[in-house]
Amino acid sequence: MLSPMTPLPTQRPRRLRRTPGLRALTRETRLSPEQFIFPMFVHEGQSDSEISTMPGVLRHSIPSAVEKARETQGLDIPAVILFGIPDVKDEVGTQAYADEGVVQRATRAIKEALPDLVVIADTCLCEYTSHGHCGHLHEVSGQWTVDNDPTLELLAQTAVSQARAGADIIAPSAMMDGQVAAIRAALDGAGFAHIPVMSYAVKYASAYYGPFREAAGSAPSKGDRASYQMDPAGGYREALREARLDVEQGADYLMVKPTLAYLDVMRTVRDAFDLPMIAYNVSGEYSLIKAAAQLGYIDERRTVLETLTGMVRAGADAIITYHALDAARWLRES
């Protein structure tokens, strides 16, 4: 029992947490389906196929991608981002920039059916090359890596092809030096000066990409991506330098990928630049939650919403997330 002389607190923060309504009134961070971007894998097949490492995520046929995009829009999610999986891969990823490539055809189909839905085209070559790297591969001092400058031309061709197909945003993810400038110049020269570039500005060589590589069949057959994606221990200076270079080259959005292990980096980039900030809640982050939920270790709904809220709190204006449809439904219910 408290002594009569014990001073009681005059400030009582719990007063503002007593009921759901009071908590809602004082929330600083708010989560909405309008902040989500839903990623979709599109392949050449006539039917959908499951991805063993990503429960609930499919490789869609083009007709299925249109229906999934329709479902996405119906949940008030404003955008999808497309990743293509071609039947035929080669050394230079020809199907990435083919006008009849799978992403180009899927973009046209979705925009025809749903003209108001924003379609973002991931602009990279790793899903399209036979070796799984993000561009023109060559060997330097016994190490396999991507030849930067020849790859810029391929990325520029890909961006123009995607814009010609109707993509609303071009999203280069190859982490080549100068890729934003090359793509901006190519888009402007082809009459697409109005198409924005969403730069994967700060993208790490992360273990969290494992499920994606299984989904897209894009694991490198030799070498790794550490020579062009960022070192996870690289620090803030490297992140700010990469972001600054993309801003100077004409990027319209900045992205940090992955997000969960790099929330501090996203906050730093957010504070340094005034462009819209995109978080990519990547495949490994998704699969960790799904696996733990299936084992009964965590509450999936609460964990997903808490995770996404943390990304917004760290500075994200929008989140690319495989949880998008479930999260939108949960937010509607609550």
Automatic annotation (TrEMBL):
One of its GO terms (biological process) is protoporphyrinogen IX biosynthetic process. Its EC number is 4.2.1.24. Pathway: Porphyrin-containing compound metabolism; protoporphyrin-IX biosynthesis; coproporphyrinogen-III from 5-aminolevulinate: step 1/4. Gene3D superfamilies: Aldolase class I. The keyword Magnesium applies. It catalyses: 2 5-aminolevulinate = porphobilinogen + 2 H2O + H(+). Residues 1-21 are annotated as: Disordered. One of its GO terms (molecular function) is porphobilinogen synthase activity. Zn(2+) binds at C124, C126, C134. Coiled coil: none annotated. 5-aminolevulinate 1 binds at R213, R225. The active site is at K203 (schiff-base intermediate with substrate), K257 (schiff-base intermediate with substrate). Keywords: Heme biosynthesis, Lyase, Magnesium, Metal-binding, Porphyrin biosynthesis, Zinc. Pfam families: ALAD (PF00490). GO terms for cellular component: cytosol. NCBIfam families: PRK09283.1. This is Delta-aminolevulinic acid dehydratase. It comes from Deinococcus radiodurans (strain ATCC 13939 / DSM 20539 / JCM 16871 / CCUG 27074 / LMG 4051 / NBRC 15346 / NCIMB 9279 / VKM B-1422 / R1).
